[in-house]
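User:
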Amino acid sequence: MLAFQILIDGFAISALYALGAMGFTLIFGVSGVLNLSHGAIMVAAAVAAWAAASVLNTDSYTGALIGIFVALIMSFATYFVVVQPIQKSRRIPNEEKEIFVLTGTLLWGIMIQELIAYFFTNNAKTVLPIIEGVVNIMGVRTPQNEIFTAVVCCVVIGLLWLLVNRTRTGKVVLAASMNPRGVTLLGHELNNVYIVVWAIYGVLAGLAGVLLGMFLGVSSYSVGPLTASAFSIVVLGGLGSVSGSLIAAIVVGYLETLTAYLINPAYRTIPALLLLVVVMYIRPQGLLGRR
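Assistant: Predicted structure:
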């Protein structure tokens, strides 16, 4: 019975992590930015969805849309307020801009975390589920919302694949991740490509945050673990590798689920971080990474 419980919950967690990691990977693959405010944006989306239902008395769908919209706004704010000014600064040497961006997004994430704690306290918030009720799967009583979460994540990941591989905009984004200079030579403005990528990222992070809030609940304390999990997934899979991130998300999701059930939920992120250290020694480029 416990094995089936771990199998079902692990799949839902893995799907959520995969959804969140897709945007994280896309941002790095195209613009070379490791956004360390990722967890804060996800939590902000979940808290916004919770606040919409609790304060404004909206329904579940409206609350979810508000949460995604908040994440989209914060994604653009991260790019235009933090990342772009650093990348365009003439006072910062080019070889140091990457570390400045890392530091800037980390501090930005901490600011968002503290604002959430100030206005909404550190107490855990659970977003009103879209689908209620329980079903029996292999003898395990499973919330229908958990199944809904896994299905939505898989569908959105599939739609993202279609967008990148079957549309003109997606192919430009894909080309920018391989050869930015070549894209500019073809007449495409890189700034516009970056805006599209950060928009996609905002929607993905917002949706993942809202679904996570429905599934497990979040608080301002969730920011660090969520960022750590996303970072572990992206590095394990290989920086910029979407397929690698998918595989790593499954590994991390099940590792955390096993740790939560068999050891202690408080230690759920530790095995994934230890695995990250081992992989960095054995294969620094990650599972499917090229750099």
